[in-house]
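Sample 1 of the test manifest.
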Amino acid sequence: METNISQSRQQQQCIDKLLNAHGVNLTRQRRVIADTLFARDQHVTADKLFEAVNNNGAKVSKATVYNTLGLFVRKGLVREIFIDATRTFYDSNTSRHHHFYNVDTGDLIDMKERLAPHFIDQDLPDGTAMDMVDLVIRVKNKAP
Amino acid sequence: METNISQSRQQQQCIDKLLNAHGVNLTRQRRVIADTLFARDQHVTADKLFEAVNNNGAKVSKATVYNTLGLFVRKGLVREIFIDATRTFYDSNTSRHHHFYNVDTGDLIDMKERLAPHFIDQDLPDGTAMDMVDLVIRVKNKAP
DNA sequence: CTGCTGTTTAGAATAGTTATAAAATTGATT
DNA sequence: AATCAATTTTATAACTATTCTAAACAGCAG
Ligand SMILES: [Mn+2]
Ligand SMILES: [Mn+2]
Ligand SMILES: [Zn+2]
Ligand SMILES: [Zn+2]
């Protein structure tokens, strides 16, 4: 997780617009968290994000990282992924896509769209509507 | 989660065979846990299984329920499902199938096989082989 | 019976996360 | 600028599902 010490003013405005568009009030902490999180498509735990944010010279508490991730999830800015019981991953890419998870290495990587099967919004349980499709293909390392 | 006070001798032998076939040594606790768990296809948490087991007149500690579920997972007798960060579900049905999860009610139900798309064992990340496909369709209650 | 191995158990410890409540910041209003 | 209310941040405590520990127990072979 590399750092970028100073965010360009242009990119900063972009982040502000993004947060505003999703109804998130602007604060110093939310900006630096968003900067770090949305610098690229990534799958990150709260703890890793906490480290990354504070490696950029910022000073943000762990509680705020948790609060902000929760807020971003509610506002649709990030997606939660439950891969195992011990930690929650946050995906900075909210576009419809699926994942490969390597059970040996713990790597979680995006699936190319063409691979993802499409699902039809029908034959769902009575009285329900589609919320989201959650597909993880667990892979293991080939024996050499 | 209904009880069946006395297991028929025939069904008991069946459970014993199942455990033996998977290399699980027989004990009183493992038998009653397996009886309860495999009575039907179900998705159950460790805590719910603990309650169910001890409602059948048995006396099994929570530690043993956790230990045994972990053992059964390693031996391929049950399947873990990670639906949210707060608890792990155990699926007594290990056949290849997928799930609907109602985010409003918490219901976790099996998908009919015909609905499940098929996945091709190709285009996986380099050096990996398919382990398992994990598909959960999250649904929400329709507004009335 | 004695020892050996594997199993169960109560309770302590762990770890990710959430709740609490006080201090700080923000933004609007005089 | 000073005031005030609302929102946000923070340190820390609390919570909870799960795992660990270490002692008791059970089954079996010699
Ligand atoms: Mn948790
Ligand atoms: Mn946990
Ligand atoms: Zn992703
Ligand atoms: Zn199932």
